[in-house]
Write a structure and sequence with these properties.
Blueprint lengths: L4 E4 L5 H13 L2 H10 L1 H18 L2 H32 L5 H5 L6 E7 L2 E9 L10 E9 L8 H15 L4 E7 L3 H9 L3 E6 L3 H5 L4 E7 L10
Parallel strand pairs: 4-5
Antiparallel strand pairs: 1-2, 2-3, 3-4, 5-7, 6-7
Helix pairs in contact: 1-4, 2-4, 3-4
């Protein structure tokens, strides 16, 4: 296995983690677009659009042109969703990583380093849901550079979060991931997470069948080996 090590975030990592997170999230735009186009609901909507424009204009080309414009609009919407998510993260917690994650005993931020470069990252903090704050921590900002996937970095980062939460007496770790992040879902499930909820982040997301999955990993009690 290729060599890497995990350490706590340092201020010198600021630009690297922001770039890593942004690139990792924007990579999901094409997968999100393909997923939406495979949706039966969206395909039906495109068919209805074609039929209506064809009937109103009397030309096949008008119908095809309307569908083409709709496809472009869907791509722009998908891209804007991921871009907005990245900008929101960069302007909030990732604008001050130390202040957001390293000043509380129940939050932390780690990076994976290989060859002197930051190639992976993950954070943990108390969840927003008041009902979970006393019993769980939330895994956030998981990202590994494309060139270093398959090294076992994601699994190692995930286990670091689980160990951190268990050492502080929490009984679970929760997280959210989108339905197009299939590799991430497989990773989390291999580490003991199970899907506990599904939601759409907006009305538009609901209309195009884009969902966010909520996962939970119940931590083992003393004397029980964690998943490896």
């Amino acid at each position: 296995m290729a060599s890497f090590h995990i350490r706590q975030y340092q201020d010198k990592d600021f630009d690297a983690v922001r770039t890593l997170f942004a690139r990792g999230m924007l990579e999901h735009s094409p997968a999100g677009y393909r997923h939406i186009l495979r949706s039966a609901r969206v395909q039906l909507q495109l068919l209805i659009l074609f039929v209506l424009v064809r009937a109103a204009g009397g030309f096949w080309l008008l119908g095809l042109g309307a569908v083409a414009l709709a496809l472009v609009a869907i791509w722009l919407l998908v891209r804007s969703y991921f871009t907005a998510y990245v900008q929101q993260a960069l302007s909030t917690d990732l604008a001050d990583v130390r202040g957001s994650y390293l000043r509380s005993p129940h939050s932390c931020f780690w990076v994976a380093e290989a060859g002197g470069a930051v190639v992976g990252m993950v954070a943990v903090e108390p969840p927003q849901d008041p009902a979970e704050r006393d019993v769980a921590l939330e895994l956030k900002r998981m990202s590994v550079s494309r060139e270093h996937r398959g090294w076992g970095i994601s699994g190692a980062l995930c286990r670091e979060v689980l160990r951190f939460a268990r050492a502080r007496g929490f009984s679970a770790v929760v997280l959210s991931t989108s339905m197009v992040q299939v590799a991430a879902q497989r990773l989390y499930e291999s580490q003991g997470f199970r899907k506990v909820g599904t939601s759409s982040p907006s009305l538009l997301a609901y209309l195009v069948c884009f969902q966010v999955f909520r996962y939970r990993c119940d931590l083992p009690g003393p004397g029980t080996a964690p998943p490896r």
